[in-house]
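Need a sequence for this fold. Nothing fancy.
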């Protein structure tokens, strides 16, 4: 399979060598090697050596023919996802609460199965949402963009913001950072817990609104992406999420009041920033 990408070098950037521009685009080293050997990157229609500069306004064409993927094929569910944003490479959907992100074994009713129905081909996973969490889920439409999106995740270019409704609002500060390592709960395999020997986990929160019932609406930004991170962290400071069956002792059967409501990233093979918010009418808190 061959993947072709065209972009224009931004007019607000300084001239840089071809090799440095490809690094800034987060193109993997192996692919940069093939692009050089096969002369599959051209500037204004002509091959330019990797030590030669690209200038503002130049057209860059990239041809990738060495892309491989070991990801499994996701069969179609027959159901359509709630599409919030789409372009040639990316799909962002509103994942339903109670739906898994991706299937195990013979499952066909997950969010990625729905995406397979919509796309008519298998989607490529970039990140996950807990089954009980609703909101924005980013999916890649081809394997060529997956390594770049993965590097955006690890370098914090890819940002994910959440909204949650929590109890014990009087314990919250206006803004704060929760920095507790997270590990497995030895007494319940479904759960995680804050523990000193766990993996580093950092969540930033901002208090948006307090309600009369001593509940509050908070905005959360993930710096790391551990399993159940937001749920564990809010529980650890005494402010578990409304509707959390694992971490809220006052759980009364409600839906988990946690929505992934904003995603921001740089579009792969471009210098263009993308920011997508969940429409207000789709927020379920």
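Here you go.
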């Amino acid at each position: 399979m061959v993947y072709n990408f065209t972009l224009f070098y931004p007019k607000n950037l300084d001239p840089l060598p071809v090799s440095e521009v490809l690094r800034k685009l987060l193109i993997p080293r192996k692919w940069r090697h093939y692009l050089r050997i096969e002369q599959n990157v051209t500037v204004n229609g002509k091959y330019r050596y990797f030590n030669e500069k690209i200038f503002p306004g130049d057209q860059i064409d990239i041809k990738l023919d060495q892309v491989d993927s070991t990801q499994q094929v996701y069969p179609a569910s027959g159901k359509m996802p709630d599409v919030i944003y789409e372009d040639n490479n990316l799909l962002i959907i509103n994942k339903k609460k109670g739906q898994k992100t991706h299937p195990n074994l013979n499952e066909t009713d997950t969010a990625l199965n729905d995406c397979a129905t919509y796309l008519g081909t298998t989607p490529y996973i970039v990140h996950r949402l807990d089954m009980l969490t609703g909101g924005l889920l980013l999916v890649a439409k081809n394997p060529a963009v997956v390594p770049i999106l993965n590097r955006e995740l690890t370098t914090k270019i890819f940002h994910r913001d959440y909204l949650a409704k929590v109890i014990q609002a009087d314990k919250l500060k206006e803004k704060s950072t929760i920095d507790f390592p997270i590990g497995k709960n030895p007494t319940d395999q479904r759960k995680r817990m804050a523990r000193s020997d766990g993996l580093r986990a950092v969540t930033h929160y901002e208090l948006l609104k307090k309600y009369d019932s001593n509940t509050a609406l908070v905005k959360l930004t993930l710096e790391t992406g551990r399993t159940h991170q937001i749920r564990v962290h809010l529980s650890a400071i005494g402010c578990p999420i409304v509707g959390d069956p694992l971490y809220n002792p006052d759980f009364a059967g409600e839906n988990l009041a946690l929505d992934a409501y904003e995603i921001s990233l740089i579009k792969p093979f471009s210098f263009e920033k993308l920011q997508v918010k969940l429409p207000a009418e789709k927020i379920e808190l």
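For context: The mean pLDDT is 96.
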